Amino acid sequence: MKLIRYQAVDGPHWAILDGGYAFAVVGSPYDEFTAGRRVGKLDELKLLPPCEPGKVVALAYNYKDLVGEKAEYEEPLIFLKSPTSIIAESEPICIPPDVAVVWVEVELAFVLRKQAMNVPKEKASTYILGHTIANDVTAQNVHNRDWHLARSKGLDTFCPTGPFLVTDLETDSLAVTTTVDGKRKQASTTANRILNDSEVLSLVSSYITLEPGDIVLTGTPAGARESVVRPGSSVTLHIEGIGSLSNPVINKEGATSW
Q: Cα separation of 62 and 227, whole Å?
């Protein structure tokens, strides 16, 4: 099942996508729900990110093709992105004028169904509402003092997410790609992950309590540092079984070039 969030006159709503049409979620997507009235065609709706996070948690170095083949792999790193980094399909990634180098990273992400703390791997799937595409936009070492920390990872608009949330996706071996201005920059499969979804959730929840609507990014494969964007660029991420997430890049003032 594919879920979307969309903007209506009276505020954000969840809907079920079926055959190109959206049907209102009756109940809560985090609990029991059914399909209600038809609210429109997909291309008629203003899509919102398919998550409502208080926290955006992400992993680094969770792909074997990124870190290289090893007999034994180190535990991936955990970091945070700001909730205001989340934007929807087609919304612009805005680069501040003092940020010189920015790249994009395709990531399979999952959204929490219920509170998760110290979750054992064998029960992890019951905590996951569904999967979506996330773009871990990253600035290179801002001012040579912020390597992969707040301004490098958490700037406003630096986490496009969507367009759909898929609730029944098998994620062990999905093709993932990044395309910048029509050129393929990343191509891999989730089979190359060091930790799978259950292992990621178990790891993260042993340190950070996750709440319904929180989103967890499960890492990116090799090629991210070659996926450089600048104002005027167009980015498309694709994950098999979910679809494509596309966003333009502008500078923060709204111009399309430096």
A: 18
Query: Is 256 contained in some domain?
Result: no
Spell out the residues 6+ positions from residue 248 whose beta carbon is closer than 8 angstroms to its own.
90, 92, 93, 233, 234, 235
86 within a domain of the structure (yes/no): yes
Q: Which of 65, 17, 217 is nearest to 5 (CA)?
A: 17
Say whether the peptide bond before residue 163 is cis (omega within 30 degrees of 0): yes
* Both structure tokens of 157: 């608009």
Residue type, 139: A
Model confidence over 46-66: pLDDT tens digits?
999 999 999 999 999 999 999
- Domain count for the chain: 2
The verdict on 13 and 67 lying in the same domain is: no
32 CB neighbour count, 10 Å cutoff: 8
Q: Are residues 138 and 191 in the same domain?
A: yes
Compute the distance between CA of residue 183 and CA of residue 133 in angstroms, rounded to an integer. Answer: 19
Task: Provide the pairing of β-strand 243-251 with 175-180.
Answer: unpaired
Q: Does pTM top 0.90 for this prediction?
A: yes
Helix %, strand %, coil % of the chain (to 5): 15, 45, 40
Range of the structural domain that residue 68 is part of: 49-251
